[in-house]
Amino acid sequence: MSFDLFPAVDLRGGRCVQLVGGVPGSEVVSLDDPIAQAVRWALMGSRTLHIIDLDGAIQGERVNAPILMEIVETLDLFIQVGGGIRSREDAASLLELGVDRVILGTAALADPEMVTDLVADFGKDRIMVALDVRRGKVTTEGWQRDLEKGAIELGLQFQDRGAGSILFTNIDTEGQVRGIDPGPTRRLVEAVEIPVVAAGGVTTIEDILTLRVAGAAGAVVGTAIYTGRLDFKEALSAIRS
């Protein structure tokens, strides 16, 4: 199975940021030109991009839409986008703009039927469901509210709904640049039949290769590549060799 590496461009207030555990105000990276950062990873050889509108995730409105539009129009990459997608119309507008895959989090959890409808209209490969987990429980509303259900239960539910893939984020390690805990990812991969892309704490090439061995279809890298802890070119070389 192929394995993709997704450099993250997280948008907040028109800037490219990286947060610790998704907590607003905990920025360890804050850069004033998100488009330049997206181009940077493309020039290094990335074939993919992972964009999250953090303002959208927290406020429920995609306030960074103009930046996203320019990135999509500028770069010929596989781009997946999440954050603030609260309705079928939001998702459809992004897909029609040229985004390759939308990531549904809060909206999917609140209205699972939306996933089924979007899959029917756009195909399963373009619909990804985000399961963000803190201390074993899936969270919603920009990681502000914990649910009583775990990732495996919900992963199976959305697989039955037709979702094409899952973005699994371990909030307990997100943004801390201390490495990963592969166990939760491995258990989810073993439970579902659709691809799982892992995020949260990826710091080293060994972390990436560990996730690949665990069966993940890809990994999102953020803080580590912005702070220099992880050489993005070397990471790409490692997964392509």
Tell me what the structure shows.
With 241 residues, this protein is an alpha/beta fold. It has helices at residues 34-43, 54-59, 65-74, 88-97, 106-110, 112-122, 151-160, 182-191, 205-213, 223-227, 232-240, and strands at residues 4-12, 15-18, 29-31, 48-53, 78-82, 101-104, 127-134, 137-140, 145-146, 165-170, 196-199, 218-221. It is 39% helix and 24% strand. The chain has an 8-stranded parallel barrel, surrounded by 8 helices. Helix 1 (34-43) runs parallel beside helix 3 (65-74) and helix 4 packs parallel to helix 6 (112-122). The chain is globular and about 40 Å long.
Describe the secondary-structure layout:
Elements: E1 4-12, E2 15-18, E3 29-31, H1 34-43, E4 48-53, H2 54-59, H3 65-74, E5 78-82, H4 88-97, E6 101-104, H5 106-110, H6 112-122, E7 127-134, E8 137-140, E9 145-146, H7 151-160, E10 165-170, H8 182-191, E11 196-199, H9 205-213, E12 218-221, H10 223-227, H11 232-240
Parallel strand pairs: 1-4, 1-12, 4-5, 5-6, 6-7, 7-10, 10-11, 11-12
Antiparallel strand pairs: 1-2, 2-3, 7-8, 8-9
Helix pairs in contact: 1-3, 4-6
